Amino acid sequence: MSQAPKCFISYSHDNEAHKAWVLSLATRLVKNGVDVILDQWDLRLGGDLPSFMEGGLTEVDRVICVCSETYVSKANIGSGGVGYEKMILTSELMNNINSEKILPLIKNNNAPKVTPIFLQSKRYIDFRNESDYESSYLILIKEIHGESIKVRPALGSNPFEISESPIASSIASSTSQYSNPSFEGNIEFDYDNHNGRYMIGAGIMQFELDFSSASNGSIHIYNDPVSIEGIALAYGASSFSDIKDASTFDYTSRSRTPNTGELVTLVNQNGFFAVIKLGKIKARNHGADRSSVSFEYKINQKKETGFE
Fold this sequence. Notes:
Oligomer: single chain
Number of helices: 7
Helix content: 10-25%
Order of helices and strands: EHEHHEHHEEHHEEEEEEEEEE
Shape: elongated
Number of domains: 2
Largest sheet: 5 strands, parallel
Low-confidence stretches: none
CATH topology of the largest domain: Rossmann fold
Mean pLDDT: 84
Radius of gyration: 25 Å
Structural class: alpha/beta
CATH class of the largest domain: Alpha Beta
Number of strands: 15
Strand order of the largest sheet: 2-1-3-4-5
């Protein structure tokens, strides 16, 4: 088992609501495998505040700076505990200008400059909109655990060095169009090409879809690709939010044949779930000018079974 990443949370005591928000964030991080140093549970009454700050800031893997308007103001003028922490962090940045140790979070802040001057070169995570909390938290927890949101694809070969054939490079380069590394999106492609295969997602959250012709308005989809553990029809669901628990569907068949408007759930060999909703389906062998399928998809990045 790998060692838990250790984080220090630097923030200003703006008010009780803000302190409670920070405490809630820290508690959730701990539950998700992060060893958090937080004054609310690590600094006893009468404790040595400078020693706590110095030890916490220098002995951790990452420092989370919760940049409220008050925090930014205190950091810029060097006031109070925030000012002292800023001095220590500035020394860290001076010693290693490319340091990725500091993670600024924006909360309760509508100022023109949302981070202190010493952090203005750093990318931040925006927590100002509560409706976007889950997506912002996912970015944060993946960053702390070293799990990139956008997984780098495997390096392919040079399409011009594969073969002497005049079409080899064209074939090799054109296959790249049959994939989308995003974790949700809208796709349309000609499934007569690329053996009916289309790749969605990336890394451990990758799914290789395998289609073949059924009729105008329906299509076969298979669990033959190595990355796919099972496929199921989401009976009774008309939207992603209707799927409360994708694991309850029947994954016992090699193939499914959804119609336009129906949803199919997939689970990959890493235990992640995806849902695709079928749009327009055309089959050349049933009179269409060309074969095509369109679909909308979502991958649950939390390794959970619901899509509410």
